[in-house]
Amino acid sequence: MENIRNNSSFGNLNASIVDIRGSMYYVKITYDNGYVIKVSGELFPGATFIAYKRSIKKWEAPHENEILTAEMVKKLITDVEEKNAPGKVKIVFQ
Question: What is the 3-state secondary structure of 55-72?
């Protein structure tokens, strides 16, 4: 059984988004501390991506065994909403 560590690097909640990329079915969000998360969803006509909150479960490797708390998920959603530039694909969490 793998150990699940407390997410100390992201846990301080001071990290910032440096990149948001995706496809028709997911977005990958990259933070300046190296943490990356993949969020499932769907791209709809009108350049709106519906991101599924329930798919926000774990970080990408090498941080996949670190705890992702409800507070971190809330910060991630807020960060994406603030970073989402006008004129780009709008990301909406449901």
Answer: HCCCECCCCCCECCCHHH
Total domain count, the chain: 1
SS3 track for 74-93: HHHHHHHHHHCCCCCCEEEE
Domain assignment present for residue 1? The answer is no
Residue 3 lies in a domain: no
pLDDT 10s digits, 2-54: 333 344 455 556 889 999 999 999 999 999 999 999 999 999 998 999 999 99
Read off the tokens for 20: 């948001």
Q: What is the reported pTM? A: 0.83
